[in-house]
Amino acid sequence: AITVPELEKALQRSAVDLGDLGPDDVYGFGMLDTVLAHVDIRCPKGRRDRDRDGVPNTCDNCKRIPNERQRDTDGDGYGNFCDADLNNDGIVNLIDFSMFGAVYGTADPDADFNGDGNVDLVDFSIFGSFYGKPPGPSGLVP
Known about the structure:
Layout: H1 4-14, H2 34-42, H3 94-103, H4 121-128
């Protein structure tokens, strides 16, 4: 539901800069980070941000202040997008991967980390980035 120029801007803003600082003739804007670009599109700046971390409340799933507008199935204070600790034992480990595997290919909202309605490889990629860590990317357990 966005225009091509909006998509281009999101990809440019989220690219990992390589070589000289800023866009250059060798690397352009840098290496694409499509997960970050997706977040940039879904969660534009300028909306209400109660905890002042730069992420609007409706998209801020990884914080200690509860967000009343996001789904938090297990009630641990982290929204589903960042709560890869599916069994709530305090760390993302092989047990969580086993639980994730059981719902792969379904529309389970608790494992659909990117919110597209399908539990697929994109969700697995997001999920994998949390392996060995406490819930939430901040590493803070409530």
